[in-house]
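Support case: user asked for a sample of complex input and structure output to validate their parser. Sending the pair below.
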Amino acid sequence: MKPALEGGKPVRKNFLVFGKPKITVQEIKEVISTIKSGWLGTGPKTKQFEEEFRKYIGARYAIALNSCTAGLHLALDVLGVHENDEVITTPLTFPSTANVIVHHRAKPVFADIDLETWNIDPLQIERKISSNTKGIITVDLHGRPCEYDRIKKLANEYHLFTVDDAAHAAEAVYKGNKIGTITDFTAFSFYVTKNIMTGEGGMLTTNHQQWAEEARTRSLHGISKDAWKRYSSSGFQPYETLYPGYKYNMMDLVASFGLHQLKNVSKNLIVRNTYWQMYDEAFKDLPEIITPAPTPKDLTHARHLYAILLNLEKLKINRSQFIEGLRLEGIGTGIHFTALHLHRYYQTTFGFKPGDYPNSEFIGERTLSLPLSPAMTKQDVDDVIKSVLKITRYYRA
Ligand SMILES: Cc1ncc(COP(=O)(O)O)c(C=O)c1O
């Protein structure tokens, strides 16, 4: 069958948006009730969401924020990252994982990924540890937990902190331990495409009381405890500045989504798993496409992103043409991610160059994320499969 890229009939008439959120009538009602309550900023619904998320994760403390990036930034702030310190992380991630290191005038040190899991390789971490290393930021890429036994062992041995960027991994479990309870701090994202979404939003978890208190204070201008209540019915509360903090707090309007998104998270994971298996099954015998590595029994994958690897040597088109081909069939896709050492800022500032992290580069140049959302129907998944098969077969080398 001729692809739309060659003038053929597209698989879909209406475009399938990548990462479409599932919003139920409960969220809509909750948002309206929040608007009617007159309390739109940080307040009782943020507190309730924070507590329910904390319980879901099983962490001792949770701080609701306006993004995952804010959580990562606060974690490094509280852990005391300073100029000339080094923090080790993966190059195969979203820019903010490394940007927050730079915001502290510290140096991001990349450790390459494992080619099977696409997560940071503990062997490479150990090679990058120096006398300036302060800590490690892990990323549970696409929802698959990192190798925490080995990473925590290294952290203990070299006295390093661990911060987890769990933007993709709210549901993930590592050997019986929920992501969010393993590292010193864990930051979650509720950005619009995420498995729990509030439009924009994030959460920081930790089991350390003093760190939690500091992070909370710094998240709202660094002014004293419970400052969000300063205009409540209990009367104006005087406050003072304890740190030069940030404006990172979550609002009730946003938490209204989160409360119901959280209620549906397990149900949605079942749908994500079903669609994941449909993709696995459809692409398993195609030499042009490599499907994600199987998940070992002792891990729960959060199934945030289904990323295939294009075997470009077996195709007559490149990845951009593949993406354009899918777009013309009516399918939205994403790339998660282009390795950070190839981004202009990181090259010009730190002197990284192509070839420095070959595994991240290899994956970053060939990966392609297909739509995976509980807002999709099985027909949508079939359309994605049909489109991928159509393009792959037509452009087979
Ligand atoms: C791995 C990773 N880290 C961090 C972030 C940033 O999340 P937020 O937009 O909530 O700050 C993202 C967002 O896509 C991400 O994918």
